[in-house]
Write a structure and sequence with these properties.
The protein is an alpha/beta fold. The protein has one domain. The protein is built from six helices and 13 strands. Strands 7-8-9-10-13-12-11 form a seven-stranded mixed β-sheet. A two-stranded antiparallel ribbon has the order 1-2. Helix 2 runs parallel beside helix 3.
Amino acid sequence: MHSAAGPTGPVTVCTSMPFPLKGKQMDYAVYLTRKSKNRKTGPIPVSTTGRATCPTSCPLMGKGCYAEAGPLAIMWKALSRARPGRSFAFGRGSGKALTWSQFCKAIAGLPEGTLWRHNQAGDLPGIGDAIDHKALAELITANAGRRGFTYTHKPPTKANARAIANANRRGFTVNLSADNLAEADNLAELGIAPVVTILPAEVDRRVYYTPAGRHVAVCPATYRDEISCASCQLCQHPRRVAIVGFPAHGPGKGKINGA
């Protein structure tokens, strides 16, 4: 689930793989924006990870994911092709694709208490549907004392669920992303993480309810200009009960139902 503003203009996104380190461990290219200029996130650190981390089971892949279009997609496409530790160019700009180790070191270097968002595009470390437990554990450790949060579309298999639950217990908030209200109920029943869900693009109220009666609060940054992730911080709370709803946005929002 992504709460950043929906970009415009179609861009094809590549699907390059992470790079192997010695042995079987994989490395991942990560871009860290120290101070986001996105109105909806606010001026907090925000990361982006290569597309190969996205689960192949995600129904939004190529069918409405906002990160597949516009300025963000231009950067994401270039990052997904970049070798970890190397510079890369995108549009008229350029950046450094951090290795996973460099990224974790950068997070550990943030001031204590810093609110930051992992992945405006991309997912938890691991190729496709799988979570790389070792890499995630490194990020959890780096985040100690900081207030990182993220979202995942990776399926809650037994192994993935264990990794996600561990992250939330240890202070790195991982929200499970649902594609509709019924799925939000199913994910909430797991009891391993807070839940967010997609809502129809044209929401007509501030509160929704799932089929099982769970409260769904519409992300306030989507309808109040003075609110951002930096001021709201609801998605960072790992023990919250309320499900957060994001109206479908971006050029592909017409492909998404979310009901």
